[in-house]
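Here's a chain:
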Amino acid sequence: MTVNRRDLLSASALLLAGPALSLRLASARTPGAAPIVLCWNENPYGPSPAARAAVARSIAQGCRYPSDAEILDLEQAIARHEGTDTEHIVTGSGSGELLSALALLCGLDGGEILAAEPTYLELTDYAHGIGVPTRFVPVDAGLAHDLPAMHAAISASTRAVYLCNPNNPTGTALPAAEIRAFIANLPPAVVAIVDEAYMDFATGTDVRSVADLVGGERQVVVLRTFSKLHGMAGMRMGYAVTHPELVKRLKQARMTTPNILAVRAARASLDDREFLTSGLQKIAPAHEARRMLQSAQPQT
């Protein structure tokens, strides 16, 4: 099977395009209009009403850093959402910042990072930029992570294996049982980095988070983001669920901390369950967004 990466990026991006796509496509044909970058997978519905109100109330405090109490309150809310405690949570300016921090930590002793090809490249691109070796294992014929091949590719130098599940840009998702078995067989020194940015939209048998593995014997980091379902891509807020020792190391390796608007918007968005539920209904298969896209397909 021959797959063009550009086609995959564009096709997978349509999943989050939403009913605003037709209008934006029309406006994009107007001279001077901003182009639509489909591969960014932005949520066209934007932040929740509660998040927008939190930002509006906070504009005057834009000269301030978020307080430790505010950050702790957000971490506690995230921990409740994930069914864990705050010592397992670390926030970042988008999950991308935490991916970069992981690349730095895993490459400190000259170790290498293993990833699928194609997959989301923020971690591996950053690793390459700072001189951390990366190796890629092609996806299988179904465009999913080839876990047996990835396991066979692990060497004495491997310090981390990156699993984007659901995978961007192929759109495939592995069952949790397969990921659990893969992680259970990893060498103790290898960190399993599981990027679940799109898990909220995942469908399929046993496709679910493996965040509960962070309390086990293997080193596991599960990353989540407020960029997609929460519609906060431009505000930069994400988090990782991992072992307390890795939380400490990630906090030390972060380049900065989230801004006050993102902290307050994220906290408000977590409680706006009506918005999150309606967003899923609009974007999920057989609902508004995908019905619109399907009806817009050219007839053959």
